[in-house]
Amino acid sequence: MSVPAGPTAETGNVSTLELFFDLVFVFTVTQVTQVIDLHPDPAGIAQAILILAILFWMYGGFAWLTNAMGTDGTLQRLIVLTGMAALFVCSQAIPQAFGEAGIVLGIGFLLLTLVHLAGFLWLQGPREDVSIRLVAPVNLTGALMVLAAGWVTGAGDWILFGGAALLFASSHLRPSGHRLAVRPGNFAERHGLMIIIVLGESIISVALAAQSQELDLPLITGGLLGVAAIAAMWWAYFVGDDDLAAKHFAAASGAQQSWMARIGYDISHLLMIIGIIGVAAGIRLDLGHLSSPAPVVSAWLVGGGVAVYLGATGLFRWALQVGPAWVRLIAAAGCLGTVPVGVGLGTAQQLGAVAAITVVAIAAGHRRRRTMAGTPGRPRGVVP
Questions:
Q1: Is residue 365 within 8 Å of residue 323, measured between CB atoms?
Q2: Do the Cβ atoms of 215 and 164 come closer than 8 Å?
Q3: Whose CA is closest to 275, among 296, 294, 300?
Q4: Beta-carbon neighbour count of residue 164 at 10 Å?
């Protein structure tokens, strides 16, 4: 079979079918947040992270797949739609993945993996053939581990889910000279759109949870401060950094571009999503009492969520050569320091604090960029 005609290398626009697939993944994010709602303790948070990491691995796999094959042909569309259906089944099982729905998640994930493999086998180009021979054993082994987790309970669940997550992570971090070439415009835009969609979903999930509460001034004020914190998180990614990162990504080639894709986009964006989920879950857990001293777990979710998000944007900036990570890492530490504010005063006050810290970090980074751009002999827009 000949290699199907894919999109041109310069095509950057994300297709509507890719966006459709992303919206199903947003349901995955909603369900992961539900895990923390049901189990607001360290074990529940760890379960949520493991499930998200495993499913994000295959979401990323489909992002690479559609980037390589496009979505214009009928067979291509059927592959994506079938994968979407499998992801939907997985997502339905998430709240009870460590319990009675584990088998459903395992079957759905195995199907998702097989559809992804079928898509790459259909491509059958020399680069795709080498890449899928490297990735397929990892994907299938991880899928079988997730399936096996559905038949056990207790420590077995943790060992198998944790093992699958570690397997996927180690594969992604391992250097390889046989990675697929990507259309950089599409790849960067796809990941950016996922972040904006997840940020929007976090606001919606909090708003829907608030419908059961009495609409009073503390709830309105706390809600607005939550929007302010999420808006600051949006600003930390979308006002300049995303465009400059996309330019540097497009200018890179070979192993450097592959490394940027895996670390700067895949890994850092998974961490960003984990942070967003943490903030949304922390707010949801304390709805109705946003201006009163918050439970410790809620305060840690809010402070830790923004901290993880800012740390991930620092990784993104560093990997894509947008700027140094240290400003964002200092801000992340500052957000962790707001936990006593939440416990002592309330979630609303803590949200105001993390929003302020984030804005200061953004302003410091932009000021540094303007200063360095004006340095003689340094290209404009490039910050070391």
A1: yes
A2: no
A3: 300
A4: 25
- Report how far residue 115's alpha carbon sits from residue 84's, in angstroms, rounded to the nearest whole number: 10
User: Contact at 8 Å (CB) between 249 and 187?
Assistant: yes
What b/e sequence results for 4-17 when a residue is b if at least 16 CB atoms lie within 10 Å of its CB, and e otherwise? bebbeeeebebbeb
| pLDDT (0 to 100) of residue 379 | 42
Question: And the tokens for 271?
Answer: 């961490």
Token pair in block for residue 250: 């497009």
For 207-242, what is each residue's pLDDT tens digit?
Answer: 887 777 788 888 888 889 999 999 999 999 998 889
Count Cα neighbours of 224 within 13 Å in the Cβ-side half-sphere: 6
CB atoms within 10 A of CB 159: 14
Token pair 């950094």: residue: 241
Q: Which residues contact 185 (CB under 8 A, 6 or more apart)?
A: 10, 11, 12, 13, 246, 250
Helix (H, G, I), strand (E, B) or coil at 73: coil
Which pair of structure tokens corresponds to residue 148? Answer: 């096996």
Residue 356: half-sphere exposure toward Cβ, Cα within 13 Å:
9
Q: Scan for tokens 């397929």, then name that residue.
A: 136
- Token readout for 125 is 């180009």
Q: Are 312 and 357 in contact (CB under 8 A)?
A: no
Q: What pTM was estimated for this model as a whole?
A: 0.90
